[in-house]
Amino acid sequence: MNEVEKFISIIDKKLRTNIVIESIDSGDPVVVKHIPDSWILLGCGNYAAVFTHQDFQDYVVKIYAAGRIGLKEEIEVYKAIGRHPAYSYLVYYTEEYLILNRIRGITLYNCFRRGIKIPPKIIQDIEEALKYARKRGLYPHDVHVKNIMMMGNRGVVVDISDFKHKEYCSLWDDFKKAYYRYYVPFLYRFTIPIPEFLLNLIRKSYRYYKKLKKITKEI
Question: What is the DSSP letter of 45?
């Protein structure tokens, strides 16, 4: 039995049978309860939770909450992306979860929170990665600071589950504008930590602004 097969075995025997993943509100991240020993929760999205195991840290398993759609689409996205240094790649999948190689780094969100400098090269890497995805017939969607990482001196994208959605998503373009207009001239030199409550306030204000802008256009 190879390493991937061993990982699949403990997912089926130890993880899936012992955890509870609840989707309380479709607009909020899922909630995970009863994480078994040796398993590490890496993060939660609106559809699924991502785990790794202390003995298999080169891989992650993404398990969808019951009733949440999107797994089949995400599998199609990873097949379209193939192997690219800015993305994870698909190792294995079932009708309930998928296994990916693990990307190690720090999200841009945590860079802001900890005062870690984000060089322009990281932004350029992400831009090139998104261009590559478009060439593969995909539509970059929901690209924001919690879905982007610095891995060493390289920018990587860690969540591409919505890349089949054809409607335009302005998150990345809006972030780029803010990065070059405000971060580079005012914060880049000093790398001041930004408190989490302030980051959440910025996020909520942005969402309110986008909703208000949409309503204004419809009037």
Answer: -
- The boundaries of the domain holding residue 14 are 3-101
**DSSP β-bridge partners for residue 114:** none
Query: Which of 101, 131, 160 is the endpoint of a domain?
Result: 101
pLDDT in tens, 81-136: 999 999 999 999 999 999 999 999 999 999 999 999 999 999 999 999 999 999 99
Q: How many residues does the chain have?
A: 219
What residue ranges in 46-181 does DSSP mark as E strands? 48-53, 56-64, 90-93, 97-101, 106-107, 148-151, 154-157
On whether the CB atoms of residues 90 and 80 are closer than 8 A, the answer is no
- Structural domain tally of the chain? 2
pLDDT single digits (tens) 156-171: 999 999 999 999 999 9
Work out whether the CA dihedral 90, 57, 107, 208 comes out positive or negative.
positive
Supply φ then ψ for residue 4, to 5 degrees.
-65, -40
Minimal CA–CA distance to 74: which of 158, 154, 194, 135?
158
